[in-house]
Amino acid sequence: MSEDKREVLVVVLCALLGIGFFAAIIAGQQVALGWLLIAVAPVMFIWRGLRLIAGLRQRNWLTVEGVITRAEVWEHRFIKHGASLSAPCLDYRYNVNGRVYEVKTEVFGRTGARAEVLKPYPPGKAITVHYDPQHPERATLSPGNRSWDYLMLLLPLGLAVFGVGLVSGQIFPPG
């Protein structure tokens, strides 16, 4: 599973947990919810920290020339709700020590971005690919972390503080 797909999965799970959190508060289960948040926060902090470390390591990856093989906007329509989800996707190919690697459908940018993001990447264009020298099959076009990655490290801290507030009765006191 690609890193971007994992990020989407985490966002969906967080949304479901958020619904569960409010349901627990409405049902008067603030203390149990608080302990759950306190328990989950360190796991999330470690996971985000490892993600940041991986992004920092990408800065030391080697580079090689590659070529764009596909650039298009992936779109999924939810017929039942009339909504749609779109994401620009790039496929590219590169060669390391005589072996050809292909990256299929890397979500480039974030969900909801449109085709203008892909304009600089027409199929056939030469690009710089950053790859892991230990595992050449791991590659990216944009190494390192985004500012959002650093901000996401604060989320577990906020959850822990909120959990302590619930357990202590300072937030949504039972009654």
Number of helices: 4
Q: Tell me the domain tally.
A: 2
Number of strands: 5
User: What structural class do you assign from the helix and strand content?
Assistant: alpha+beta
Percentage of β-strand residues = 25-35%
**Overall mean pLDDT score?**
81
Q: Ranges with pLDDT <50 over ≥5 residues?
A: none
Give, in spatial order, the strands making up the sheet with the most strands. 3-2-1-4-5
Could you walk me through the main structural features you see in this protein, from its secondary elements to its overall organization?
This protein is α+β, with helices and mostly antiparallel strands and 175 residues long. It folds into 2 domains: 3-58 and 149-168; 62-142, no CATH class. The chain has helices spanning 3-26, 30-58, 147-152, 154-168; strands at 62-78, 83-96, 99-107, 126-131, 139-140. The chain has a 5-stranded antiparallel beta sheet, with no helix packed on it. Strand 4 and strand 5 (139-140) form a beta hairpin. Helix 2 (30-58) packs antiparallel against helix 4 (154-168). The longest helix is centred in the N-terminal third of the chain and has 29 residues, at 30-58. The N and C termini lie far apart (45 Å). The model has no long low-confidence stretch (mean pLDDT 81).
